[in-house]
Write a structure and sequence with these properties.
By secondary structure, the protein is an alpha/beta fold. The protein folds into two domains: 190 residues, Spore Coat Polysaccharide Biosynthesis Protein SpsA, Chain A; 62 residues. The protein has ten helices and twelve strands. About 2% of the residues have low confidence.
Length: 314
């Protein structure tokens, strides 16, 4: 198999169907490709809606629906499709992780595959993510650091300027370039990466860090363009609606990422830096009568879900 595309659905069947519609014309250039849609035990009519769409549109030739026994999150949903494909007789050369709240623009998959074919040393490549109006979203990032967490929490101009080389989400670039990690909304991974470092544990940041430590480069490919309806699958953020409070699993994922990759002391330092940054940022918002840029009650939830988790043995 040339390419396996994995889409994880959870209560977003209509978005997933639209995503599949955008993928279909792309497969004309990639005849040896398959799509697996996993469903993380959605409590709605997702399975019925998706099964009906696959059947009525004739997608069963290239698309498989895989119901899962639980909602295990992003990594779990992807792993359930990736693992059997890697151990089977027709293992894919490339795996594309694709969010259900995305629309693949013409030529995007071809551009990603062309780049991967021309760059055998690259293990991971990510697409350019756009809003519906064509504006570009940041989807190429630096690995998290203690100073980067402080800057992220504060979001104050002078602090961001001083720490410009530590910003986790640096300013947009339109050229092909190497990055630390890319958005999991559209991330292409070479089979050899999975073979060497294993499957996903948490989220794309952790996976890209493990890949980098194993010697695999990660690149941003702006010629590959997708529309990302941000937050529609997670329900956390969205360009066209008010920001929602960060759920507990978001803080859990952040905590696990730092603890697993940097140890206890650096995790404590990162927590302290981010908390201080949040306090500075909120104070600056009040002084300037500025609406907070982040989710509501973020500092309160940070204390509740993150700092208190240390006392719960997490």
């Amino acid at each position: 198999m040339r390419l396996l595309i994995v889409i994880v659905n959870y209560r977003t069947p209509e978005l997933t169907v639209d995503c599949l519609k955008s993928v279909e014309p792309e497969l004309a250039d990639i005849p040896d490709a398959r799509v697996t849609v996993t469903d993380n035990l959605s409590p709605d009519d997702s399975l019925v809606t998706l099964a009906r769409a696959i059947e009525s549109n004739g997608w069963s030739k290239w698309c498989t629906l895989m119901p899962l026994p639980k909602n295990g999150g992003f990594a779990y949903g992807n792993n359930q499709a990736i693992h059997p494909s890697l151990t089977g007789p027709d293992s894919p050369e490339l795996v594309l992780l694709l969010n259900p709240d995305t629309l693949v623009l013409p030529g995007a998959l071809r551009e990603l595959m062309k780049f991967m074919d021309a760059s055998p040393d690259v293990g991971i490549a990510g697409a350019r993510c756009e809003n519906r109006d064509g504006s570009v979203r940041r989807s190429a990032f630096r690995f998290h650091s203690i100073r980067g967490e402080f800057e992220r929490g504060a979001n104050v101009g002078i602090i961001s300027k001083i720490l410009k080389n530590q910003i986790t989400a640096p300013p947009l670039r339109n050229d092909l370039h190497r990055v630390d990690w890319v958005s999991g909304a559209c991330m292409m991974v070479r089979r050899s990466v999975f073979k060497k470092i294993g499957l996903m544990y948490y989220e794309e940041t952790d996976f890209c860090l493990r890949a980098a430590r194993a010697g695999f480069a990660c690149w941003y490919v702006p010629a590959a363009r997708i529309i990302h309806l941000v937050g529609q699958s997670s329900g956390v953020t969205g360009a066209a609606k008010a920001l929602k409070r960060r759920p507990k699993y978001w803080f859990d994922a952040r905590h696990r990422y730092f603890l697993r990759n940097y140890g206890v002391l650096k995790t404590l330092a990162a927590d302290f830096a981010w908390g201080c940054g949040l306090l500075i940022g909120r104070t600056w918002d009040v002084i300037r009568w500025r609406e907070p840029y982040e989710s509501p009650r973020l500092f309160r939830d940070f204390v509740r879900f993150n700092l208190l988790s240390w006392g719960q043995g997490k």
